[in-house]
């Protein structure tokens, strides 16, 4: 089974620096990355490459910002990534009126070379969901991914994803931090998991 899980939050998103972005956006809940966000994602890839860290499998949320982050990482380290909705954003009814719209898996796979759409999702989120339900869903996704592979796996998603994956594997969110393009590592120990670190950002200095 998987011995190490890495989790990365997406980079800086467009709507955080351009408050008018959503006025003309085709999908106002699915912003992409800024130039800084792409650089942050590239730096994640450089960290993995410089540290000789490779992955048996990579999974990412289907939201554009997470897909772009994943594509930048794969552009440095190589490999491909599967789209996994179970790692997606919190379906918070205070943020969204209905299920947030994203590009189709086929479109994402056609546009971003490292992205593959030939994976049957482990978990499909429901709308709406509470914070606890969203974390539980991400945690269940992480457990299923970890059981399906050996070696190292990488999951790319959102702030919610970081907490959910750690909670799902370790059993608690104690010590979790989720800055943009922060790195979290979880290691298998005996029959359980241990949080190595969370929110590492020195690769962005």
UniProtKB/TrEMBL annotation:
InterPro entries for this protein: His_Pase_superF_clade-1, His_PPase_superfam, Phosphatase_SH3-domain
Domain of life: Archaea
Pfam families: His_Phos_1
Protein name, entry field: Histidine phosphatase family protein
Organism the protein comes from: Halonotius roseus
């Amino acid at each position: 089974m998987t011995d190490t899980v890495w989790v990365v939050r997406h980079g800086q998103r467009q709507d955080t620096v351009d408050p008018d972005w959503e006025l003309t956006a085709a999908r106002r809940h699915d912003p992409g990355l800024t130039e800084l966000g792409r650089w942050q994602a590239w730096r994640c890839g450089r960290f993995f490459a410089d540290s000789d860290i490779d992955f048996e499998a990579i999974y990412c949320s289907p939201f554009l910002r997470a897909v772009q982050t994943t594509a930048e990482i794969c552009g440095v380290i190589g490999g491909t990534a599967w789209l996994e909705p179970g790692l997606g954003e919190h379906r918070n009814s205070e943020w969204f009126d209905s299920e947030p719209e994203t590009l189709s898996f086929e479109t994402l796979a056609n546009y971003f070379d490292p992205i593959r759409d030939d994976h049957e999702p482990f978990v499909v989120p429901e709308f709406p969901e509470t914070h606890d339900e969203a974390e539980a869903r991400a945690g269940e996704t992480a457990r299923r991914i970890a059981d399906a592979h050996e070696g190292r796996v990488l999951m790319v998603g959102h702030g919610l994803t970081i907490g959910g994956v750690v909670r799902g594997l370790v059993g608690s969110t104690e010590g979790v931090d989720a800055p943009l393009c922060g790195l979290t590592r979880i290691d298998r120990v005996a029959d359980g998991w241990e949080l190595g670190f969370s929110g590492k950002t020195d690769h962005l200095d």
